[in-house]
Amino acid sequence: MTRLFTFLAAAFLALPALAVELGDDGLHKTDWMRDTFKDLSEDLAEANAEGKRLAVIVEQRGCVYCTKMHNEVFPQPELADYIRENFFVVQINLHGDTEITDLDGEVLSEKDAARKWGLLFTPSILFLPEEVEDGKSAGQSAVALMPGAFALGTTLDLFTWVNEKRYALDGDEDFQRYHARRIQERDNGKTD
Fold it and tell me: How many angstroms separate the CA atoms of 40 and 56, rounded?
C-alpha cells in the first residue's frame, strides 16, 4: 500500500509539469507564439525583419487534436527550438471575435477570417511567403497548409520544407516526396 501511495503521489506531483498553459480564450499558449495586434501585414513585416517565416496557427477551445499537438509534438525540443528560431507564429481562434486585418487589408473577426480562408480543422497552420501579392488574402497567399494534427516527423519536415523554400524549387520533390525521403534517411540513421 505504501508503494502505491508513493507512486500515486509522485504521479500527481508530476502533473503540473505536463500541463500546457491555457489562455483566457481556452487556447494553448507557447513561448514561441507572438501576441500581436493581428494585423497580418505588420506581422509579416516583423517576421521578415527578424529573418523568420510567418505562420498562422488556427485553434479552438476544447480541441483534442490541439491538445495532442501541444502535449506531445510541439514540446519536443527539436521542433520547439526549430519553430522558435525560424518562425513568427500568430495564433487565431477558429470561433474568436477578436478583430484581425488580413493580408488583403480586410478587417474581420478571427472566425470570419477562418471561414474566408476555408479552414475547417484545428489545428491548422497557414505558412506564408515572405512577400505576398497585393490584394491576396492569407488563405490565397499560403505556400503550405497543415490541416490537423501530425506526428513529430511530419510536423518538423513540413516546417523545414517551408523554411527551406522547397515549395519554390524546380524539380519533382514536392512535400510528400521530401517527407518520404526524410523518413528513409531517419530510418537509415542519416539524420536525427
Answer: 9
Distance (Å, whole) CA 175 – CA 167:
7
| Residue 159, SS3 per DSSP | helix
Question: Are the C-beta atoms of 54 and 142 separated by less than 8 Å?
Answer: no
State pTM to two decimals: 0.86
CA distance 174 to 9: 49
Rounded to 5, what percent of the chain is helix, strand, coil?
45, 15, 40
Summarize pLDDT for 132-183 with one digit per residue, the tens. 999 999 999 999 999 999 999 999 999 999 999 999 887 778 999 999 999 9
**21-150: which CATH topology?**
Glutaredoxin (3.40.30)
- For the stretch 91-142, pLDDT in tens is 999 999 999 999 999 999 999 999 999 999 999 999 999 999 999 999 999 9
Q: Which three cell numbers stand for residue 35?
A: 501576441
Q: Which residues of 149-180 are buried (b: 16+ CB within 10 A; e: fewer)?
A: bbeeebbbbbbbbbbeebeeeeeeeebeebbe
Domain ranges of the chain: 21-150
Rg of the Cα atoms in the chain = 18
Residues 156/192, Cβ–Cβ less than 8 Å: no
